[in-house]
Amino acid sequence: MVDVEHRIRSFFAGRLDDAAHYGSEYEHLWQAASRASAGGKRLRPMLVLVAHGGVHGSDAAQAVELAVAFELLHTAFLLHDDVIDGDEVRRGVPNVVGEFGLDARRRAISEARAEQWGRTAAILAGDLLIHYSQSLVARLDVDRDTRIALLDVLDRGVFVTAAGELADVSYSVGVTEPRLTDALDMTERKTAAYSFEAPLIAGAILGGADRECIRALGEYGRLLGVAFQLGDDLLGTFGAEGVTGKSVVNDLREGKETPLVSFARATDEWARVDDLFGRPDLSPKEADRLRSALELCGARAFVESLVADHVRDAVAALDVAAVPAGLASQLEGFAGTCIGRAS
Amino acid sequence: MVDVEHRIRSFFAGRLDDAAHYGSEYEHLWQAASRASAGGKRLRPMLVLVAHGGVHGSDAAQAVELAVAFELLHTAFLLHDDVIDGDEVRRGVPNVVGEFGLDARRRAISEARAEQWGRTAAILAGDLLIHYSQSLVARLDVDRDTRIALLDVLDRGVFVTAAGELADVSYSVGVTEPRLTDALDMTERKTAAYSFEAPLIAGAILGGADRECIRALGEYGRLLGVAFQLGDDLLGTFGAEGVTGKSVVNDLREGKETPLVSFARATDEWARVDDLFGRPDLSPKEADRLRSALELCGARAFVESLVADHVRDAVAALDVAAVPAGLASQLEGFAGTCIGRAS
After folding, report:
1. Which helix (H) or strand (E) holds A93?
2. Which chain A residues have a beta carbon less than 8 Å from that of B23?
3. Contact A165 B124 (CB under 8 A)
4. How high is the ipTM of this complex?
5. Would you say A291 and A204 are in contact if contact means Cβ atoms under 8 Å apart?
6. Structural domains in chain B?
7. pLDDT in tens, A25-62
8. Across the A/B interface, how many CB contacts are shorter than 8 Å?
């Protein structure tokens, strides 16, 4: 993972050098993109490297390139997510939208134009990273069949993620009212596909794994990705803020249509609190009422059992001869940390 | 060019088939992306094919793939441009932002959420096309050196275009006040780089052209691209609306900081009309006053002469032994049409 950090830094350093020839605003844009990429957990690169190493892949340098490609794509999605949601803050500090917006406001530029400036910066930064992510994959020094197989994985990852993101927004703006199965599909598409399934499959392909092993890793990734996101949804409502650093009212204030909420909606309990859900000014006490309702109606227990089921099934998917024992055991250990998160 | 149209249609048809498995909204997104790509002039694909054929390239099928990659990238930039500018209409009909926004408003969804829905659709559609554009290039069946050379061209094209777009917006929101040279740089970066220079260079590389020929075509593309955009700026202010189908008040109402305006700003004439420039409610009579000022101060004549100079220099750049005579003559003819546009 040291190599991944090093390569991410060298990628941004190279672009920053070039950007200096195109004016200070463009340099600023690349600095902001670099900061947006810093400090992440590097989950996706880690999965690429674990899969590649676990199938005894021998091309460590190419694996790092592939790992970095996934991280750039992830940063791009975060940047565009913030534009879509109109957020100006991420992890407590101004994001690219917020940073450029603040800069414009300091220059006494009108609010509408300051917003446009912030939006522009984040859209362009994301566009650049989507492009460069794919460029890194295209440049891999591998045989044509491997390259095409990797491109297929990336194509599918991006295609499915966009479907999931569109569905997520369609629920939150109210274009679609999700049933529980819709919310679960959305979770799988928006998170599991590009964050778990694709990095594992891609790492294994690069490492020369056979079809059966790739299929098993994909299945594990899909299931674990759903468990991970469901666990995240639980933490976002019932977590210990001091421990996780994650707000436990934001999801309720935003009216995030998670499977947790979809389950609750189908119960009588929800009707009594529905008017609170999605209120931007939700008080701590009102948030408690929503949490109680989610507990009483069985939604919390249901999602907790879903997490456990998905983790169990994910681990079971690894139990085929084609998956090397060392890799299976490593991924089983990783799956355990997801349960810990959720409880 | 028939092959290009056919391939663009088959690309979107393939994605539409897949999208059908991910819900009607996602199908709708791909239909909208396909419509956004339809009806363009296919300038960039044409330049790829002209350059490839002109250097006696023999791989027509790969040239079509490369040509389509440039067109998808162009569509992506248009889609994101509209989000950046907050436009809901393009060529007189609702664009993707507008179409999705209208759909939400019809369902009685609040204005802020309808805007979010429109913005989301256009951002995701653009993201998908940026990704797939690069995926097509990555999949080309060419030797590694050629692939890397093409990827370098695309990387630079996207990098420089983003710099130009950022500069353009920085002028229109007022973060930067452009001097004439800044406005000319912006024109070269935002339009010439990916619309003229990159397609010509890429087509020539794929066709196996030598370094000197590629250099000459790049120079021609850069100069002609600037001439083309300057001509477009002139048409956008002085054109015959009935003939061009292009509004001659929009640029003045938006306060578009073109080189035409940058030149005028440095003259005394402009101070008398500066308060009119950028007024969203500019009347036809006020637009006439702005036009008169642009004529009187010499800005129009200056930009017209710039166009002529750039076209002449572009054609002169082709006058090297490395550029095949047939290609030079074809590109000279094409350059002539740019002069026609501007006058």
Report:
1. strand A93-94
2. 163, 167, 176
3. yes
4. 0.96
5. no
6. 1-39+60-141 (no CATH), 144-343 (1.10.600.10)
7. 999 999 999 999 998 899 999 999 999 999 999 999 99
8. 174
